[in-house]
């Protein structure tokens, strides 16, 4: 089995890479910054410096990874960009990076997967979205809107690729206890409800891919809380989510 993970140099992507390596799979990862990979760690993982926003570079990287392999069995996109933009706290550069990485990068990922897997007549694709993307309301953050777009893009490719024996699994997690999340919150995760450990997240995600689930939302408590919120009128949801974001920012 051969697995390639875009955005696999850190966080949940790297944890998934180590998981598949432990199962004896051929594993490749790519990212914009290879220095994120722990020094002298998992030397059997093939790493490539690649930006998902450049589809030609992504295709070239996949070809390099597969040069001595028959096919690509699993392709996962963990690449993503986050910036808090509630109450206008965001620069143009941050907004552009989120739009480019989370939307264009997702389309490039699926197109690269389609080109590689279509002739195989099989394969499993998975993309990391966010539980926040299941909510639809007018004043949701740009990050939330990009992750909702990821879910919709994945749904379109699920329909298009199913006739070719290719499964698409969308992962919509809540808060995962990664180093990046800790950095963004000055190592204080007290305001992150239903926090999931990385090892637990890896187990849930890999099982969902194995079972070819269409959409997986976790943890369960977060899933039902967000689904309950989605039933509220948009005007009320706007107020609740804005106040929630302000509360999380005020220490």
TrEMBL record:
<dbReference type="GO" id="GO:0000140">
    <property type="term" value="F:acylglycerone-phosphate reductase (NADP+) activity"/>
</dbReference>
<comment type="similarity">
    <text>Belongs to the short-chain dehydrogenases/reductases (SDR) family.</text>
</comment>
<dbReference type="Pfam" id="PF00106">
    <property type="entry name" value="adh_short"/>
</dbReference>
<dbReference type="GO" id="GO:0006654">
    <property type="term" value="P:phosphatidic acid biosynthetic process"/>
</dbReference>
<dbReference type="GO" id="GO:0019433">
    <property type="term" value="P:triglyceride catabolic process"/>
</dbReference>
<keyword id="KW-0560">Oxidoreductase</keyword>
<dbReference type="GO" id="GO:0004806">
    <property type="term" value="F:triacylglycerol lipase activity"/>
</dbReference>
<dbReference type="GO" id="GO:0005811">
    <property type="term" value="C:lipid droplet"/>
</dbReference>
<dbReference type="InterPro" id="IPR002347">
    <property type="entry name" value="SDR_fam"/>
</dbReference>
<protein>
    <submittedName>
        <fullName>3-oxoacyl-ACP reductase</fullName>
    </submittedName>
</protein>
<dbReference type="InterPro" id="IPR036291">
    <property type="entry name" value="NAD(P)-bd_dom_sf"/>
</dbReference>
């Amino acid at each position: 089995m051969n697995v390639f993970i875009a955005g696999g140099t850190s966080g949940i992507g790297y944890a998934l890479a180590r998981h598949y390596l432990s199962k004896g799979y051929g594993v490749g990862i790519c990212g914009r910054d290879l220095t994120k990979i722990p020094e002298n760690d998992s030397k059997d993982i093939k790493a490539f410096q690649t930006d998902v926003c450049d589809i030609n570079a992504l295709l070239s990287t996949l070809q390099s990874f597969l040069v001595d392999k028959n096919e690509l069995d699993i392709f996962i996109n963990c690449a993503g960009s986050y910036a808090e933009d509630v109450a206008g706290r965001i620069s143009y550069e941050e907004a552009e990076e989120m739009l480019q990485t989370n939307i264009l990068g997702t389309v490039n990922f699926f197109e690269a997967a389609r080109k590689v897997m279509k002739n195989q007549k099989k394969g499993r694709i998975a993309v990391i979205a966010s539980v926040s993307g299941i909510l639809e309301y007018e004043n949701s953050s740009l990050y939330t809107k990009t992750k909702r777009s990821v879910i919709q893009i994945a749904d379109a490719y699920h329909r298009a690729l199913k006739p070719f024996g290719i499964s698409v699994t969308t992962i919509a997690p809540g808060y995962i206890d990664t180093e990046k999340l800790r950095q963004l919150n000055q190592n204080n995760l007290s305001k992150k409800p239903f926090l999931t450990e990385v090892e637990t997240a890896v187990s849930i995600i890999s099982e969902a891919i194995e079972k070819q689930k269409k959409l997986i939302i976790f943890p369960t408590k977060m899933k039902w809380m967000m689904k309950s919120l989605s039933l509220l009128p948009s005007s009320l949801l706007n107020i609740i989510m804005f106040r929630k974001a302000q509360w999380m920012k005020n220490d």
